Structures are given as structure tokens and as C-alpha cells.
Amino acid sequence: MSQVPLSHILMVSTALFFIGMYGLFTRRNMITMLMSVELILNSVNINFVAFNRYLYPGKLEGVFFTLFIIAIAAAEAAVAIAIIINLYRNFHSIDVEAADEMKF
Amino acid sequence: MSASAVVFYILSFFILATGLLAVTSRKIFRSAIWLLFSLTGIAGLYFWLQMEFIAAVQIVVYVGGIVVLIIFSIFLTQQSGKDLPPPVRGRAVFSALAVCAGFALTCVLLRGYAFRPAGYAVAGAGPGSGGAGASVGNIGAQLLSTTEHGYVLPFEVISILLLAAMVGCIVIAIKTKPEDQ
User: Fold this and answer.
1) Which in A58, A79, B66, B90 has the greatest CB count within 10 A?
2) Better-scored residue on pLDDT, B11 or A87
3) What is the pTM of this model?
4) What ipTM goes with this model?
5) Residue B16 burial (C-beta neighbours within 10 Å; 0-12, 13-18, 19+)
6) Are residues B35 and A38, on separate chains, in Cβ contact within 8 Å?
């Protein structure tokens, strides 16, 4: 592990973040946009774990932040999917362009 | 190049390639499966960083929970055999340009910064010198401790958040009665 410098891990997480960003820009289907958000959150988690491992080896703060981010991501995915299913009932489509009006 | 470094580069190539396929695949179900592979690769990266507990949580929550939820919602809302419409060409080109520019800028910034371990880190505990600090026992003890560096208050806040999210999901996704429509 010590042969790989920290900046390479950070570059991997940066690349993953921008892949998720590309998906968020180009996709117009809500479920695929949710998948892109999951990729972005995962790149942040990689950053926290790598910083904790390389720069603060005796501490656990990065682990806790990663755990809390995973918990929040789970809650966010559940709420997002509930919203998507509700939207599908109202518009019969989960394309964001189709959802062009708010309530009623 | 040692075996450990080779494992890291293979893992990162796997994560990035499957992540790219997940955001570009035209079939939504395949996209979900590529996302599953990418998340599993990230769990492998956590194993490589000797954070076994985080890797286990990643597999349980992401692979076992979120991806299954996504696949369920695909089956509920979508004809999974149908292709997604291709992205608008101009939008795809410009977002690829923006993303490449952002990646290049971040890489330049990363190369110029010298990362040094913090001065007050445990003496002799450099990168890769044992994972005793991140054992499950230590994580659990600090997560529920009420002393200065304990995380019991965020833990309770997170549990309230999960309860609120659960109730909120039921309220949002509940079927309206026929007479309302």
C-alpha cells in the first residue's frame, strides 16, 4: 500500500466524481441520475478513507464520516425512489423533462 | 512495481471502467448492473486500504440495499428491455468538455500539493503499518462513547434521520384513495 502515493488514490476518486458529474449532466432519466449521485457520494467516501489512512493513521474520524455518508446516502436513495414512484404515478414517465408542473 | 500497487491499479481501472459504463449504457438495467460492479470494486478498494469494516458496510448497504432498491424501482417504473433515448448531442459534447476541464484542473492542483502526514499522528504509524487503529472494536467504542471524541450525538441524529426518512417514504409513496382523484 505504501508504494502508491496518496495523490493517485485522489485522482481515482476525482475521476469517479467527474464520471458521476457527466452522468448527471447527460442523463434525463431520474433513476440513472440517482445512480450518478451514488457514484459521486462514493468518490467522496474514497477520499475520506484515503485521507484517514495516509495522513491520520491513528485516528478514526474519516471512518465515521464515511459511515455517516453511507447512512445518509441510504436514506436519500429511499426517499428519492419514493418520489420517483410517486412521480411515475402522476406523469407515467420518470423523465425529468416530463415533470414540468408542480402539484395539480 | 509491487503486487500491492498492481492490485490498486487494476482495482481503480475496474472501478472507473464500470462507472463509465454505468453512466453511458443505453439499457437502464445494464446500467444498474454496471453500477453494482463499480460499487463492489470500491469495496475492494476499501479492503486494499485495510478498512475492512467500511468495506463490509459498503457491500451490505450499497450492494445489498441501494442497488436492489434501484433495480426494484426500475422494474416498477420502466420497460427494462427498452433503450433509453440517447443524450442530446450538444449537451453531451459540452458536458464531456466541462467534465474533462474539471478533471484536468483538479489533477493539476493535486500534483502541486505535497501531502504530508499530520505532525501529531501516532509515532511510527506510517501508511500501511498495521490496521489496529481501525478495528471494529475501536470503531464501535468511539462511535458510542460520550467523552470528548465520541460520536454518540451524530449517531443518534442519524438514527432520527433514518426514522424520518422511513416515515417520509411511506407518506410520499402511499396510494391516494380513488375518491380523491
Assistant:
1) B66
2) B11
3) 0.88
4) 0.91
5) middle
6) yes
